[in-house]
């Protein structure tokens, strides 16, 4: 997701995340949203992380390295349910298994 620089700071990104979270929870009964963010400590990466945290996403500790991409990543998740037993801190490595599976499915569909 990206918001054109000239429109940033107006709440559009937060609005979009809230709308997506509401749709995911109500229409598809999803329990959480998962994203990956660049983990390298750079000002632009830190800004992105702060944005996602402002939207309610929680950072995991695990740092993932893809074989084909030099950057490192971390998983963040947004709990969509109120049951706190279901929203305990997540295992970043386990989340990356889900992310990697999604990538495989997405690229397979693009190549068919």
From TrEMBL:
Transmembrane segments: none annotated. Residues 1-79 form the N-acetyltransferase domain. InterPro entries: Acyl_CoA_acyltransferase, GNAT_dom. Keywords: Acyltransferase, Transferase. GO terms for molecular function: acyltransferase activity. PROSITE patterns: GNAT (PS51186). Its EC number is 2.3.1.-. It holds the Pfam family Acetyltransf_7. It comes from the Bacteria. This is GNAT family N-acetyltransferase.
